Amino acid sequence: MKTMLSTDTDISTVLIPNTVLVVFGLLLSVLGNIIVMYIQWMKLKSSYNFRIFIPYLALSDLCSSIVCSAFSIYGNYHWVTWDSVYLCKIAWICVCLVQWTSISFLLVIAFQRYLKICRPYETVTPYKKIVTVLIVLTIILFESISTAVISGISEKHILNNTEHENSSQQNEALQPIHQCHLYADYEKEYSVFSYIDNSIRTTLLLSFIVFYCKCGLQIHKLSKKVTKSTSNIKTAIYENTNLDGDTILPREIVNEMTETLSTKSEPILFMTTSFLSLSNSSKDVREHNKSKDPRMTDVKCQKYRNINLMFSFITIIVIVTYTPRLIIMFLDNSDMHFLDNISGGRLLLLTSLYRLYLITYFVNPIVYSVMDKKFRSELIKLFRCVCCKMCRFFAK
Q: d(Cα 242, Cα 249) in Å, to the nearest integer?
C-alpha cells in the first residue's frame, strides 16, 4: 500500500517543472523589483512626483513573490502531508496580506491617475487621504482575518490504485491525506466570506475599468484640442495674422510662435504675452486665461497617454493571470475531491494555471522598462555602469 510520503514523492516528481519555473520566477521578481526600487527612489526621486506609489508597489510585489513562491514550493512537496494547522493558517494569511496589498496599490495608482488627468484642479484634502487609507486597510484586514478563520487542514481518504477482493481490504486501502484549504470545515462562515469577497473583487474590477476608461477618454479629448489648436496657430502664422484675422502680427511674434511649434518641450497651446497684448479687449485676455488649460500640451498628453497605458496594461495582466486561480479555487472549494482524481500531466497543467499569477511579480519591471522612457534611460545607465565595473574587476 502506498503511504502518504510516497504519494507526496510521486506528486512532487510530477510537479518538478512547476517548481523550477516558480524558483526561476522568484529570482526574476527579486532582481527586477530591487532594480525598480533603486531606480525609482535613488535616480528618479519618485517620492516627490507622480511615481510615488511605483516603488511601494515594487516592494509589495517583492514581498508577494517571496511569500507566494515559498508557499507554492512547500505545497508541491507536501501535497497530502500538511500536518500543522497553524502553518496552514499562517501561509494563507501571509499570501492574502501581500496579494491584497499589491492590489490596493494598483487601486490607489488608478485613483491617482484619475485625479491627475480628469480632476487636476481638485485639492486632495487630508480628510480624503485618511478615508482612502482606511478603506484600503479595511479591505486588507478583512481579507486577511477572514482567511485566518476559514483556512485549515482538510482530512480526506482516497483509494489506492490496487485491486482488492473484499470490502474490508478496500476499507484498509483508503489512504488518509491532509491538505491545506481555504475552506476546511466552516461552511456558513465561508458562504458569508465568499459573498463579501466576490462583492469586493467585482467592485475593484469595475473601479479599475471606470478609472482607466475615463482617463483614456479625457486624454483623447485633450489630444484633439491640442491638434485643433496647433492647426489654428499654424494657420495664423501662414496668413501672418492673429487668430481673429484682424491684426497683422509683427515679425518677432511670428518667429516666436514658429519656434514654439518646432520645440516639443514647449506647450502647443503657447500664447505669448506680446501676442495677447495685440488684442485691445481685456475681456478676451481674461477669457483666454480662464480657458487656458496647463494639461493641453503635446508632451503632457503623450506622457499621460503612455503612463495611462502602462498602468492599464499592468492591471490587465493582473486580472488575466488571477482569473485561472479564482476559477480553480472555486471548483476546489465546491468539490473537495476536485484535485484528488487528477494526476500526471493534467495535475501539472492545473497547478501551473493556478500559479500563473506569479508572473505579475516579475512582469511589472519589464513593463516599466518598455513603456517608461525615463526608467528605461536610467536602467540602461545602470546596466552600462555594472558592465564597466565587471570588466574592470575581471581585467585586474
A: 6
Q: Is the dihedral of CA 373, 307, 33, 46 positive or negative?
A: positive
Q: Give the Å distances, CA to CA, from 357 to 111, 150, 324.
A: 23, 22, 8
Residue 45: is it exposed, middle or buried by C-beta count within 10 angstroms (0-12/13-18/19+)? exposed
| 3-class DSSP assignment, residue 241 | strand
**Residues linked to residue 81 through DSSP beta bridges, in sequence order:** 178
Q: Cα–Cα distance between 43 and 46 in angstroms, integer?
A: 8
DSSP string, 126-189: HHHHHHHHHHHHHHHHHHHHHHHHH-EEEEEEEE-S---SSHHHHHHHEEEEEEEES-SS-HHH
What is the rounded CA–CA span in Å between residue 313 and residue 310?
5
Residues 244 and 303: their CA atoms lie apart, in Å, by: 31
The H or E element containing residue 387 is helix 373-395
Q: Which of 77, 90, 80 is nearest to 151 (CA)?
A: 90
Q: DSSP state, 249?
A: P
What count of Cα atoms within 13 Å lies in the side-chain half-sphere of residue 362?
Answer: 19
pLDDT at 177: 77
Give dist(CA 31, CA 29) in Å, integer: 6
- Max avg pLDDT among 66-75, 147-156, 285-294: 66-75
Q: First and final CA of the chain: distance in angstroms?
A: 62
245: left (phi over 0), alpha (psi -120 to 50) or beta: left
More confidently predicted of 29 and 80: 29
- pLDDT > 90? residue 68: yes
Q: What is the pLDDT of residues 309-332, one digit of tens each?
A: 888 888 899 889 988 988 887 777
Which of the two residues, 183 and 255, has the higher pLDDT score? 183
The structure's pTM equals: 0.75
Gyration radius (Cα) of the chain, Å: 29
pLDDT tens for each residue of 55-64: 999 999 999 9
